[in-house]
Structures are given as structure tokens and as C-alpha cells.
Amino acid sequence: MSSGRSFYVTTPIFYVNDAPHIGHAYTEVAADMLARWHRQSGDDTWSLTGTDEHGEKILRTATANGTTPQEWADKLVRESWIPLLETIDISNDDFIRTTDERHEKNVQVFLQKLYDDGFIYSGEYSGLYCVGCEEFKPESEVVDGTGEFAGQKVCAIHSKPLERLEEKNYFFRMSDFSQRLLDLYEQNPEFVQPESARNEVIQFVRQGLNDLSISRSSFDWGVKVPWDDSHVVYVWFDALLNYITAVGYGQDDATFESRWPGMHLVGKDILRFHAVIWPAMLMAAGLPVPHRVFGHGWLLVGGEKMSKSKLTGIAPHEITDTFGSDAFRYYFMSAIHFGQDGSFSWEDLSARYQAELANGFGNLASRTLAMITRYYDGVVPAPAEYTEADLNVQRVVAEAVANADAAIEKIALHESLAAIWTVVEELNGYITVQEPWALAKDEANRERLNTVLYTVAEGLRALAVVLSPTIPKATTKLWTALGVEDSLGALTAQPIRSAGVWGQLVPGTTVGALEALFPRIETTNAE
Length: 527
Ligand code: MSP
Known about the structure:
By secondary structure, this protein is an alpha/beta fold.
């Protein structure tokens, strides 16, 4: 089922200094929704996630916990980051760790090439460094501390004191690339999205770029600089390369060429690394730049970016233990405009769960199957003549699928779900108007009842297909209950872009029982 299109999507690789919170899970789910959508469209899809394990931040955390950074990273990956993928039902194709040999070795290959080609030189550096960001901070992002840090310079993001570093470093000639980057943003407006992010990046590069310090010599937790092992590679330079070392860069050219370039989903706080430094690195190495870098917003709690260090972190399982992974995925993808910040609250989650998933979609599915069971012994009837109301359902379904796909192309994930939800609303409204329970009372209306129930069941078939990337568990249950495995094949094998073609459900199919897809929840548990 290959469409010949190749689609490679990545999440940022996560720092292993702490366990995941729902902000991290948010990026994971978005990338997974895209990957599942493309996979189900027949695109040659590859999705990558992983962990960022080097650098001073991890070293200090490990030391503070009385262990080595490698042991610390192994523990966090095993106990927190890999289990996260199951908690929120991620279907990633690969998981890269920056301590993998395939990564470390090829970071050195990349660096050596840049060195040999004259893009790296050695110099002295002095600047204010934020270990939280793992970055030298420009003046514009340095603010005066308050409270316990009064009188000190602190990072605008972390509100923690900056450290003055003075050392001999290797530098990457990033300043050479300002104009080429501006040309890239100009010629390919899709490269950085959304528009607000693009403008910010252009603004930044227009001021001119400095060369970038890409090595550290005051500690040794990192990839050794190949020509000078008293230095380790700067953690961001190392981390960004995961996107290519994971798909064969330096060791498997055929795989690399078939996958790269990909597209990156990142939080807006790390957009500049991906939209400025990363393409400059690739240009220097003579490699293609990514197709696209999409910067999403932050999850806010109490109006502030949710974060563990500010003690507002919520672990993903706190939500999934009560609501399940499908609800987690649906809620964050539908309730927040992808690309903008969004506030999380338990009340909103509970309310949407009940209104949209339980009453809107779940109920629609269970009562449709219950009516087919009651009135037709579970056998899907053949439709008779279609009326205008039935044809309208068909139009809504076809448009919803087309609009959802167009929204996915723009990475407007919330818009894609809003398009799909027009079908849920249309079908619920249709049932209310057609009153199949009233039709069932009179044998003379049998043909009409056939058409109405076929229409709803076929609408549900389409819904299962287009909702499967977002709520894979519930739609799999629905698919089984619809009894279509034999006639249509597995749910994940249904070509998503043609899900709106009417009439795929074969009359005569026997449906089964369906447990509540989204059972009622005692909200007191969740608050
Ligand atoms: N290790 C770097 C990324 C290297 S990529 C080559 C990093 N890691 S991180 O663990 O700090 O953050 C990973 C991602 O989580 C970022 O995209 C960041 O924006 C996202 N989030 C962290 N807190 C968040 C929210 N409160 N809301 C949404 N996303 C947030 O940066």
C-alpha cells in the first residue's frame, strides 16, 4: 500500500535529568498522530523519538544522585522514558539514545568533515551559560534575579543564576550562513511554521549570527572531539545530529537517502536550535535541510509553562490511569490550537471527555450497534433509496475526510479533529431527526429503517478509520464490533485518504456487542 511518498517525523530527544511530564508527552502524541495518519495513508513513514543524555545538566543530576551519568541515563530511560511510550500509546519506529554507538561514532564523522572543510576553528570564549537551557545566553535573554537570586543575572526561562564560563573552545562558523538561511526562509515559507515562529526566526537571523561555540573542556560527559580528546562536543551540536545518525548517516547511505530529509516537531523554546543552528550545520556538511520545523506552544498550568523545575509538572500516567491513553491523546490534540499555548485543567479534561468522547462518539457507536442487533439480529441491512438527508450525511463524511487530510498537511492537528467531529455531530443529529426507534415500530417503514441504520453504520466505519491515528484503542474495539475485519481487513490497513468514499461497509456484515468505549468516570478521582 505504498503511495511512494516518504514521511519522516521526529520529536525532540528528551533530557534524561528527570521523568517525563505532560508537556513532553504532548510533543510525542502530536508526532504520533501525524505518523499514524501518514502510515495509514500508505506513505513510507518513519517516526523517531529518543533521549538526550550528554552535557552538564545530566552530569550534575547524576552526581547529585550519587551515580554516574551513564547509569543515571540507563535508569531513566528504562524506568521512565521507554514506559512513557506505552502509557500514551506511541507507535514510534525507532528510539535513539545519544549514548548509542551509532550516534556517537557518526557525530564524530560529521564533526571531522566540518573540521576538514574549514568550518571549525579554535578560539577563546567568555559568556553567561545556562545549564538548564544548555546554552550561552544572549544579552536579550538575561534578566536580573529576584528573591533568593536578587543581585545576580538569571536566565529568563529558568529564573536561575547564569554561570560565567571562560574557556578555550572550538567554534563553528555559523556567521557564514546568515544569508543562506534568510534565503531559505524566503524561498521556502513552509520551512519554519507556524507563521509567528517563522517571523521570530527571520527577525533573529537578520540581526546577524555569531559563530557558535561547539565544544567544552571543563567536563568530559559527551562525545569526544575527534582531533582533540580534551574536548567534548557541545550537547546541542551532538543532540541535533540524532535526526540523521538515527537514519543511517555515516554508515548506511541507502537508508539515509531514503529517509532524510524529515520534519521536526519541537516546542517553541527550542525552535531556534532547529531552525537556525541545525540547517546551518547541514548546509556546512553539504546535506539537505529538513522539510519543515514546526514549533508548537506550551502547556500552561496556572498561566505558566508547565515544568518540573517549577513544580507544576503533571506525570502523564496521572491522566491516563483515570481517563486512558485515547482520552489523553484526543484531549491534547483537539483542545489546543496546535502551534499556540494552551492551558491544562482537570475540569476541562473531564468535561470534554464526558461531552465529546463518552456522549458524542462513544454513545453514537454503542447505540448504533445496539439498534442493528435489536432490529436486524446484528446483520447490517442494505440501504434502500437515499433521500436528501442521507445524501447530506455522505457529503459531510466526504468533506470531513478531505478537510482533515488537508489540515494534517498543514500540521493543524486540532483543525483536523474539528473536521472529523462534524461527522460525529452530523450522525447524532441525523439519528435524532430520523428516529430509527420510531421507524422500527411499523413494518411498513422497514426499507427506510434499512437506509437509516446503514447510513449511520457506514458513517461509523469512516469515523473509525479517520479517528484511528488519534484514538487507536477505541477505534480498534469499534472496528472489531463492526465485524468488518474479514471484508475490509485490519483497521490500520484502511487507506485514510479514501475513508470518505461511501459504501465500503458491506451489507450483510454481522456486528458484535460493544462495551462502552469511554466509560463514565467518577470525577472526584481526577481532581
Ligand atoms: N534535549 C532538548 C532537545 C534536543 S532536540 C535535538 C530538550 N529537551 S527537553 O526534555 O527539555 O524538552 C523536550 C521538549 O519538551 C521540547 O520540545 C519542549 O518544548 C517540550 N516541553 C517541555 N515543557 C513543555 C510544556 N510545558 N509544554 C509543551 N511542551 C513542553 O529541550
